[in-house]
Amino acid sequence: MKKILFQTVLFFFLSLPSLCKSQTIIADTATMRQGYSSALYFNLRTGEKTPAPINAWDMAHTTVSRDNCIRINHMNGIEVYAYPKGDNSAYSSMDTSGWPNWKKYYNNTHVHELGALNQSVNKKNMWDFSWGVYDPTTKIITGDSLYLLVISIPNTGISFLKFMPIAQLISGDFIFKLGSLDGTINRTDTLLQSDFTGNSYKYYSFTKGKVQVEPLRDNYDILFTRYLALTVPPGGGSPVFYPTMGVESKRGTRISKIANYTWSEINQTPAKVLDEIKTQGNQNELSKDLTKIGSNWKSYDNATMTWKIERTWTYIVESVRNQGKVIDTAYWMIGFSGFSGSGKGDSYFNRQELKGRVSAVSKTNKLRATVFPNPAEKELLLWISTESQSASIKLLGLDGRVISSLNALSLNDSTLRIPIEQLASGSYRILVQTPTEHINLPFIKQ
What we know:
The chain is mainly beta. It folds into 3 domains: 21-53 and 219-362, no CATH class; 59-212, no CATH class; 364-445, Macroglobulin (MG2) domain (Immunoglobulin-like, Sandwich), CATH 2.60.40.1930. The chain has 2 helices and 33 strands. The strands form 7 sheets. Strands 8, 9, 10, 11, 12, 13, 14 and 15 form an 8-stranded antiparallel beta sheet that branches. The longest helix is centred in the middle third of the chain and has 8 residues, at 270-277. It is globular, with a radius of gyration of 22 Å.
């Protein structure tokens, strides 16, 4: 069994506020404008709102080291098809006959690291990163894949672009090639890591080149936006990908969805609730799910032709800021109160900080780790934070037998992807060890 497919840095650190108390409730509005034409980056701490046109970018590449994520802006009508007739050597002679029957890929709506171009991993090669292959010696990912981008624009028609990732350098710079089928467009371009310092992604427009879209990471927590999500059609049947207005988390941000406590009850016992959301396995556990808030806090009632809001749901967002050697962590509650629909694109909500005496902690060498999702069917994501220079990771049966193991270096704030599809259903555990510490992480294989 392959042990690791990829790993990616997640900027995350956990602090434990003490003597928690509730603060002032703030009523706020996030405006995406008519037709949800503008995304909105929202800073829970300051209330600062940074708008950005939904269609400002077409492709985004990660700025996070040890990651290879490439996400596509499906809201620009872009569909991604992997070329099935050859590798990237076929770039100049791409044969597009039969393209509607090719495998189509979408951005994952739950995992930041899984963009549309990260969905076709060769599970027989532990260094295969879907669009390219990682060289552990040079730390370079060399592209080996070719994609057809089909772009549908209302009142204009369909256009086609060839897209070929060339390399992701150790610096984080991303080199790629882009061209039209008739050869009128044919260019090689590079997204420089240095141009996007402090951002989560490097953004690119097929017509304008590099574009600045998001504010600095420390200047926002959540994003009101549109994305494709699996949705059950109104008449029923199998879910299909459909444009959805929802809320995404900033990369690395953890969020808890709480349905078993009211806002008032959380305010009465904030310390208890904060303890619960930090406890692994608790139903209210914090999650790095990209769309933990998502879109289902609202639903349209066809009978009354009004929007129904889940007013009993509360979300707690772990807001983290890096301040040199200190990590500043705060916890903010969000509860939605209304929604205008596409006419105005307004989302109405209340926000409130759960504030403690201690809101910042120094970085330490303490080992931290967690696995998700749990239970899992095909793969686990194992998050590790340690400043130790070495660590061992073992997959164990409940009887203690070692099923798989790995020795790794420099796993400070990293996520490892571990395939478990070949395991029999049952209970297992992951043992993470450094020279001075260890953590046991039980999980269930469905």
